[in-house]
Input
Amino acid sequence: MLDLGCRDGSLTRSFASGNQVIGVDIDRKGLQIVQKNLGIETQWLDLNSEWPFAEGKFDAIVCCEILEHLFFPHILIEHIHKSLSPGGIFIGSVPNSFRLRNRCKFFLGHEFDKDPTHVRLFSTSKIEQMLQGRFSSIEIVPIQGKVLPFLPVVEGLPRVFVRLFAKDLLWRAQKIL
Output
């Protein structure tokens, strides 16, 4: 497995046991922490630079909360596609930039994303568009967020509500055989 943007291993911890994982990040201190705590192989990498991984090397690649930081995310997705083995799984997530809360802030003239490192905005359809043609079985699941202060985004709500109120978009896609 390859974990892109592993940081200190908070997410990596959930799937490292029993798997051979390489954690990648641009934060050298984070890599030291994940290597110490989980004992996995780590590698420093700027995802805007050369891609060091061989074709078909990984059965699964995780890339959570990374694409919004890249000027050319489609290039990274192409690298991911090439580095996955046939039938390999790509799991990722991005903030849902077009959720209703952000649209209202924009309408009122307010900044809705105050993270200066976010250079891309994503919607469900944008993610789907980027994954189609390279991956099959694309499943995008809107997660987190609240419809009302007392009503969190959960399964069972109408799809339109989930897409409008979810804070993040999580996906699972399989490389076409």
Notes: The mean pLDDT is 87. Residues 46-96+117-144+168-175 form a domain with the Rossmann fold fold (CATH 3.40.50.150). The CA atoms of residues 153 and 174 lie 26 Å apart. Helices lie at 13-16, 28-38, 73-83, 100-107, 124-131, 159-165.
